[in-house]
Amino acid sequence: MISFQEAQSILKKEFSNLNLETEQVDLVDSVGRILAEDIYSDINLPPFDNSAMDGIAIHFTPGRGEWKIVGEISAGKFSDVRIDDNSAVTIMTGARLPDRCDTVIPVEDIEIDDDHVSLQEGIRLVKGMNLRKQGNDLVKGKVALTGNTLLKPHHIAVAASCGQSKVNVYKRLRIGVLATGDELVDVDETPAGDKIRCSNLYSLLSAVQAMNMEPVNLGMAKDDKQLIYDRIKSGLDNNLDILITTGGVSVGKYDYVMEVHKKLGIDIKFWRVSIKPGKPVLFGVYNHDGKTTLVFGLPGNPVSCLVNFLVFAQENIYSLFDLDITQKIVATLDGDLKKEDSKRHFMRGFCTYADGKYRAEKIGSQSSGNLAEMGKANCLIVVEEDRTNPQKGELVECIMI
Q1: Regarding beta strands 174-180 and 131-132, do their DSSP bridges make them parallel or antiparallel, or are they unpaired?
Q2: N or C, which end of the chain has less CB nearby within 10 Å?
């Protein structure tokens, strides 16, 4: 059995060996994808000096408070109106400024009488106010978006402003999920006797989908050595980047996953990690015809399974793309925690924020089979190996889920 940090060190090394491919997609289809290139601005942004307000544009002259309106300019309808110190042009938000205009006065700060305008009493003017200068956001040729950005709508807006109708993104990792166990039935069946519904298959497929990777449903397999072999072999032949199995990784009579992995030539890097829940996690690497597939064998207990995925698979997938997405916060405990062994614990908890401080408390039973309590949690409370029985008021790290 190895430590959590040793496991993470191995995972980081092996994840770096994955071959990341790229593809070009339409800009409107790129939201949620990971940018594989830097995007440069092909123009100055803004491309011209423009008004940040509806109002009037003037040439600033100290002490002046009255002007004659000599024209109007709205966004997209520029008119090169000539002004002097005594004149002004009515202007709309986003409209290009004519020559000599260096200050914009908001409409709410002026009084208009026909073609004359005056400054309201008490309003102080500052030269250059309410302008957006050419290139203030971006200068032509400068980086607008850096590679490895997880594209969200506001990033799409930036790319569109730079004239990018298509962008290069990383291809989604293909992640296959196989659930094993004689006790499993599918979600649309009513379990009878000693059967249970297969929640792990769906929690993992949805977790993969939530990361905007490509889930591959390998279904369920009974505790039959040849059947498990065939299903895993089929997954490995399906151009997967990551293969995840659940169940069959412990030391029971019908736990065949380790044996099958070895028979298939999967190089086992570790088995069992000093954590709770999820100790019997297995990890290996399969190399064939220049293709590397990372293989996780997760426990069958539903909480252990999902916790393993979050702290081992998800964390390292994000790191592979240099993404710091997992939200980790420091919170004050609202109650005592019981932890007396030397493992690293990930306790289901609920975290709140009030009065400038995060607070966390554990959620009910910490049994690795208690999926209902997991459904109430919004965080995992981390209790490190060398820490025992944290008390109310102490600080803990929480991984938000």
Answers
A1: unpaired
A2: N
Say if residue 155 is in the same domain as residue 202: no
Q: Is 89 exposed, middle or buried (0-12, 13-18, 19+ CB in 10 A)?
A: buried
Q: For 47-67, what is the mean pLDDT?
A: 95
Q: What is the pTM of this model?
A: 0.86
Same domain? For 278 and 394 the reply is no
Does the pLDDT value for residue 234 go beyond 90?
yes
Indicate whether 281 and 188 sit together in one domain. Answer: yes
Last residue of a domain, one of 148, 170, 192: 170
Do 253 and 264 reside in the same domain of the chain?
yes
What is the Cα–Cα distance from 173 to 151, expressed in whole angstroms?
16
pLDDT tens digits along 292-339: 999 999 999 999 999 999 999 999 999 999 999 999 999 999 999 999
User: What integer best gives the mean pLDDT of the chain?
Assistant: 94
Task: Pick the more confident residue, 203 or 370.
Answer: 203
Which of 320, 352, 376 terminates a domain? The answer is 320
Residue 46: count other Cβ atoms within 10 Å of its Cβ. Answer: 19
Assigned token pair, 46: 């803004």
Distance CA 117, CA 104 (A): 13
One domain for residues 26 and 166 = yes
Report pLDDT digits (tens) over 129-151: 999 999 999 999 999 999 999 99
Q: Do 76 and 38 belong to one domain?
A: no
**Token digits of residue 15:** 């994840």
Are 70 and 177 found together in one domain? no
Residue range of the domain that includes 207: 4-20+172-320
Strands 267-271 and 328-333: unpaired
User: DSSP 3-state assignment of 92?
Assistant: coil
Q: Which value, in Å, is the radius of gyration of the alpha carbons in the chain?
A: 30
26 and 160 fall within a common domain: yes
* Domain count across the chain: 4
- Beta strands 174-180 and 55-58 are unpaired
Q: C-alpha distances in angstroms, 29 versus 75, 156, 169?
A: 29, 10, 10
What is the identity of the amino acid at 366? Q
